[in-house]
Design brief:
By secondary structure, the chain is α/β, with parallel strands linked by helices. The chain has ten helices and ten strands.
Length: about 240
């Protein structure tokens, strides 16, 4: 049984169909990436898994439990974390308050304190900014905060939406190193990323979305080697 399984999922905004028959799986311990052009439905896929958008058809199961009728806060309690596109930090709250809000579904103060410290070890720059308003952080710091906040729910599967968007090359390498470390410590990762080559370099498997449908599904290595995928998403280089 896959950790996360989508079967024939349709989703739409009003009358506009955003996803059509999307099926994918994520096995425990994997990094799986979902790539595609802007508007292909990648963010919609994560929003649908998280309960922020209800599918009009299909099944979404996490560790064998159906999610399609559960509210977003219950989905977080089930063990799914989501770091959204655009970071979405609470700008007027401090870094510490943002992190503590990430643990809103939990009750053990001791464990929350342990995880907050672990986040600050993972992202040392946040320790220096704990009392600073989140809205005053740089883009890279806000991205670190968004990921750390999602980790504060102690997810078994972490969904990351465009974590490198707008970051400098050095910070991109930092963020991808952190994703590897998070996965190595036992958290499964479903990654959406504009930098398809970088995403496939750390993923075990990948899916390519085109106009709301899965166009390709294979190992990351095979997708990197595919002439069609290279031409469309990797700049045409081998």
């Amino acid at each position: 049984m896959a950790m996360l399984e989508l079967q024939d999922v349709d989703a739409q905004y009003g009358r506009i169909r955003a996803l059509s028959g999307v099926s994918l799986t994520v096995e425990e311990g994997e990094i799986v990436t979902l790539i595609g052009a802007n508007g292909a439905g990648k963010t919609t896929t994560l929003r649908t898994i998280s309960g922020l958008l209800r599918p009009v058809r299909g099944s979404i199961r996490f560790e064998g439990r159906e999610l399609t009728k559960r509210p977003p806060d219950d989905i977080v309690r089930q063990g799914l974390g989501h770091s959204p596109e655009g970071r979405r930090v609470f700008a007027r709250m401090s870094v510490r308050e943002n992190l503590e809000l990430g643990a809103f579904t939990r009750s053990s103060r001791t464990e929350i304190a342990e995880d907050l410290e672990r986040s600050l070890v993972t992202f040392p720059r946040l320790r220096e900014r704990l009392t600073q308003k989140a809205g005053t952080l740089s883009g890279g710091e806000q991205q670190m905060l968004a990921i750390a906040r999602a980790l504060m729910s102690r997810p078994r599967l972490l969904m990351l939406d465009e974590p490198s968007l707008g970051l400098s090359p050095i910070l991109v390498q930092t963020i991808f190193g952190v994703i590897r470390d998070i996965n190595a410590r036992g958290t499964t990762v479903l990654l959406i990323e504009q930098n398809a080559r970088q995403a496939l370099s750390i993923a075990r498997r990948g899916y390519v979305l085109e106009v709301g449908k899965i166009a390709f599904a294979d190992t990351a290595a095979n997708l990197m080697a595919s002439e069609a995928v290279r031409a469309a998403y990797l700049g045409g280089a081998a």
